[in-house]
Amino acid sequence: MRKNKKSAAKFLWAAVIIWMAVIFFFSAQSGEQSSALSGGISEKLSNLMSPLIESLNWDTAKFEAGLESSLRNLAHCTIFFVLGVLLALTMQCYNISMPKRFLFSFFISLAYAVSDEIHQIFVPGRAFQLSDIAIDTAGALVGILLVVLVFRSRTNKKKGKKA
Questions:
Q1: pTM of the entire predicted model
Q2: pLDDT per residue over 79-125, tens digit each?
Q3: How many domains does the structure of the chain reveal?
Q4: Would residue 141 count as lying in a domain?
């Protein structure tokens, strides 16, 4: 590995570890704290949309509950999307095949999603949920695929210029 790649790998591994700590921090919040955060956001959004909700004769409480659930899923997906991107970028620093880079990134993301849910067993008001693992892994997979596609595109452009 060249010096530039070694420096980049160190920086990216640090970013991965910091991001994993951010995920751990959010997972360590009690169920009450977590609900207060997502509930507060969904309540503000619901208030902004109240004229629309009322004009459509929707049940405000049901709308807020659905919105909160959607926001929680989006948050899971988004934080693991970032983890997937960081891991895929980190793997680009190593002289291994693209499929191996993809698989390493994917399995590290999956393992962290599983460990995150195991961690939540020990947090008051939280629980292990397979659906969260699926959402987390899907988010990471999209992030990894984005990086793979960008690097493939760059590689194809370089090959096109050489020909």
A1: 0.85
A2: 999 999 999 999 999 999 999 999 999 999 999 999 999 999 999 99
A3: 1
A4: yes
